Amino acid sequence: MLIKRLQAVALFLGPVTFAASPFFWNDGHYGVTGGMLIALSMVPWVYGFLGEYDRLRVHIPNISGIWLIVLLAGMFGTISFGLQGFFEEALGVVNRIALSSFSEYPPQSLLVLWLPGPIFPLALFVFGLMIGWTRTSPRWAAVFICVAAIAFPAGRVLRVDWIAYLADLLLVLPFSYLAWQAWRSAGTRSENL
Q1: Which residue spans traverse the membrane (predicted)?
Q2: 38, 81, 123, 128: which could join 146 in a potential S-S bond, CB 3.0 to 4.6 Å?
Q3: pLDDT per residue over 113-156, tens digit each?
Q4: Where along the chain do its domains lie?
C-alpha cells in the first residue's frame, strides 16, 4: 500500500529532520536554518503520526482520537517556535528582545506560543504510553519516547546542546523502528491484497 509506505517514510523523516535542528543553533537560538528544520519537520511527522493513529484507534478509539487533537495543537506550537527562531535571525532581533516583545500581545502569544508549545512533548509522552499499553510496539520504544518527551523541553527551553542531542536520539531510535515496522506491515498487507 503506497499510502502506508509513505507514512512509514514520513515517520522516519519527521524526527530525523527535527533532530538536525540543534546542530544549527546560533548561541542557543534556533536561527534561520534550525527554525526552518523544526517547522518543516512537523509536515512529514504529522503524516507519519496519522498512520500510527490508524493503528491505535483499533485498540483505543476514544483516547487516540483525543490524543490526535492534542498532537495537532502541539505540532502547531512547535511550528510556531520554529518560525519564531527563523524570523528572529532573519529580522535581526536575536536575544531576549524577540521573546519580550511578545508580552505586548498577551492573548495572541499565549494562543500561538505559550499554550501549544509545551503540548507537543506532552503528546509524545502520551503516545509512548499508548503504544506501550496497547503493546502495538516494543516496550523499549515506548520507554524511549516517554523519556525523550521529558528530556525534550529541558534541552529545547534551556538550550543545552547535549540534552537536546540526547532527547533527539531517544526520539530518532524508536521512530526509526516504528517506521520500519510500518514499512514491513504495509508490504505484508499489499501482498495479501
Answers
A1: 29-50, 62-83, 111-133, 140-156, 162-180
A2: 128
A3: 888 888 999 999 999 999 999 999 999 999 999 999 999 888 88
A4: 2-185
